[in-house]
Design goal:
Strand order of the largest sheet: 9-8-7-10-11-13-12
Mean pLDDT: 92
Strand content: 25-35%
Number of domains: 2
Bound molecules: zinc ion
Radius of gyration: 19 Å
């Protein structure tokens, strides 16, 4: 195993590690394309290969790029969540809690990993849930605490709120699993921390969406070896990727039963367009997203699974 250090233009130092698949340990992936640095329209991040495991279908990078410092510290919560609507997220939290009540036929304790500014938990608390959050980034955690949420400022790896046995009725991983270098280890901890019959809620980007497929095809047609999957060394720092199939397999292998799994339309953030080509690209992206959602290849996966 060889280690190298590289620095991206925003000053973050990255350690390159050659690791096997983070889920099944297999070491024979196929290359999807390159991403970051030279292979980025604005030169963001560090160039790395994006690969897909031939066994469990998880998407990850080779090498895996590990930041020496918390990359989210480079941005304020207002910048990072600039396209998130706080009120909308609170009402999503209420909907998530209401759905859990319907399945469990009770309310109880809810833990959110990577709770950001805590809006989902605020929504759940409005319905009478006892809520807890884990958030690594100082600015985000302070925002959540200011809303009265019980927040532990910690990485998921070191969290004592997560390191429990049978304590929670529901654990939320909303747009968080794709940020973790060790999704399998985290799901094992989630399994242990939930009571038997408890629920995990997960939403992640769909790396096999029509948008991703057409995006990669577009890169090929322009003669580039780039791909549009993941963003391992630039915001929003997605380091592993899922398809409906690979997420299902991961949950089952971690001791969960799938309650429901839906492929949904998501609104991707697209940078301000600066010229006609970019405006055409943006319009095309919106069309592809719409069509993808209609044919069941939307940009997001939303899943509820039961702890067995
Ligand atoms: Zn694998």
């Amino acid at each position: 195993m060889s280690n190298d250090f590289v620095q991206s233009s925003d000053g973050i130092r990255w350690r390159a590690e050659w690791r096997p698949c983070p889920v099944c340990g297999s070491d024979n992936p196929r290359v999807i394309g390159t991403r970051g640095g030279r292979a980025h329209r604005e030169g963001k991040g560090i160039e790395t290969n994006v690969v897909q495991c031939m066994v469990c279908e998880i998407i990850y990078t080779r090498p895996v790029m590990i930041p020496e410092t918390n990359p989210y510290d480079k941005t304020t919560s207002d910048e990072y969540f600039y396209n998130h609507d706080s009120k909308l997220k609170e009402s999503m939290g209420e909907s998530i809690a209401a759905y859990a009540e319907k399945v469990l036929r009770c309310k109880g304790k809810m833990l959110e990993l990577g709770c950001g500014r805590g809006e989902l938990l605020v929504g759940a608390a409005k319905r009478g849930w006892e809520v807890y959050g884990v958030e690594m980034t100082d600015d985000f955690a302070r925002k959540a605490a200011s809303k009265g949420i019980n927040v532990e400022q910690s990485s998921i790896q070191k969290s004592s709120l997560l390191n429990q046995t049978g304590r929670y009725d529901v654990i939320l991983l909303a747009a968080i699993l794709e940020h973790l270098y060790d999704p399998l280890e985290t799901l094992h901890k989630v399994h242990k921390a939930l009571r038997i019959g408890g629920l995990v809620f997960i939403d992640v980007p769909n790396e096999m969406s029509l948008t991703m497929r057409i995006g990669n095809l577009y890169m090929r047609l322009r003669g580039r070896d780039w791909c549009v999957n993941l963003s391992p060394t630039f915001s929003p720092f997605h380091v592993v990727g899922f398809s409906p199939n690979s997420l299902r397999k991961l949950l089952v292998s971690s001791g969960f039963r799938i309650h429901r799994l839906d492929v949904v339309k998501w609104n991707n953030a697209f940078p301000q367009t600066k010229n006609l080509v970019e405006a055409i690209e943006k319009f095309s992206l919106e069309v592809v997203q719409y069509v993808g959602a209609v044919i069941g290849m939307g940009d997001g996966i939303v899943c509820w699974a039961i702890r067995e």
